[in-house]
């Protein structure tokens, strides 16, 4: 019996954003390993075992999934968003590299998904319509001075920024420090979007200026997008849209 | 009669990566506007009009779609990948901002999708598992010196890079120039992936080193990923995997 491991992304929440490939992998699984709230979204299915874990134990979760797959099970690791963006896929390959040789012989498939920044951008208009960078503000996984250095260089490059993992109970002022670093280079009126729980019933979207952003509230479900020098807000009767034009530093076509 | 416009992403190609939300929008459309090869993927449907165009006329295509929606039609603009990443959503909002006031009153919905870098990353392992930047190498839309400046700053920040629009008939040496700029900062052995037509029958994946990358062939269907200093290749009996660990500059957990 040959086991296999599929790492799937469930997207930001609603079923309408889960790819058919991810759904098919979940249907075919004997075991699903993941963070509890993600597994709670799945319908009960006879014969399918759900292995729920805390969100702090990504590596242990990956090792558990690989152990089950090596035993011959059809295992799915369920991740939020896209599994390759600040999510479970990297943890699985870290575990494979450090683990027993048998894990390298396993068939491992990663199924892409809709990551939070794409859903947030779609909800707003097209803020990621030009070059952009995605940065996790978590300092569990890298020193905070690396984060600040990256934000400054990304600002100098005039990338739009998608900021993941912006909330920290241990360091509540971290996001304000990030905005201060960006504000050294980027204009005070730069549009900033707080996109919380996009696509879910508790969705909340706030658009503000960079010099107001430090006063806004962000939690674990919030993704922040900081515009480039070109990002624009269009006021409309149906609500504002935020977008970044495709062209940069050349004559606009319109 | 109130028209509406939905901008959907068809993903990189296969149906299994098209979200149910995008499929539902296509099913409900009276008119679908898009680049010819994308529309050719759609099944014929009585009463649904397909408006195929060349891939060079994004703004005209957006204006055409908005005109149809303003006439009361249920219009879908079909984009490859995710519509918000180097695709049609930004062109639609450029057209809205510059167009007649009536276009601002239209209901416009953007449906996110699987963009090429996520599909390529999934196919490889997890190369985007840490901070990364997405850069279009097209110099139709920005000066080439802006591209080179961004690549240098992104290298200094040690971002993984996802490079879109890497092929240019007019300037075939552009990609080699980009690799040369990156090679000034990033190590010669940095992993580089050429991911062509991921998920389609003509898929081709090549992994090489940065100092070999200039000799590789890339076409319009190729996305290139350039690793950071941390990106690793794992040799496996089932084929190599490329991934970037979640942590940076702190003790690895494994």
List the helices and strands and how they pair.
The structure is a homodimer of 254-residue chains.
Chain A: E1 4-9, H1 20-28, E2 31-35, H2 36-39, E3 49-53, H3 58-70, E4 74-79, H4 88-98, H5 101-104, E5 107-111, H6 116-124, E6 125-126, E7 132-136, H7 144-156, E8 160-164, H8 174-183, E9 191-196, E10 204-209, H9 210-213, E11 222-226, E12 232-234, E13 241-243
How far apart the termini of chain A lie comes to 61 Å
Classification by helices and strands of chain A: alpha/beta
The largest sheet of chain A has its strands arranged as 3-2-4-1-5
Largest sheet of chain A: 5 strands, parallel
Structure, explained:
The structure is a homodimer of 254-residue chains. Chain A has 254 residues and is α/β, with parallel strands linked by helices. In chain A, 30% of the residues lie in helices and 24% in strands. Chain A contains nine helices and 13 strands. In chain A, the strands form three sheets. Chain A has a five-stranded parallel β-sheet, with helices on both faces. In chain A, strand 12 (232-234) and strand 13 (241-243) form a beta hairpin. Chain A is elongated, with a radius of gyration of 20 Å. In chain A, 51% of the residues are buried. The model of chain A has no long low-confidence stretch (mean pLDDT 94). The interface between A and B is large, with 85 and 85 residues. Strand 7 (132-136) of chain A pairs antiparallel with strand 7 of chain B.
Key descriptive features of the protein:
alpha/beta; 254 residues; 30% helix; homodimer; 5-stranded mixed β-sheet; 5-stranded parallel β-sheet
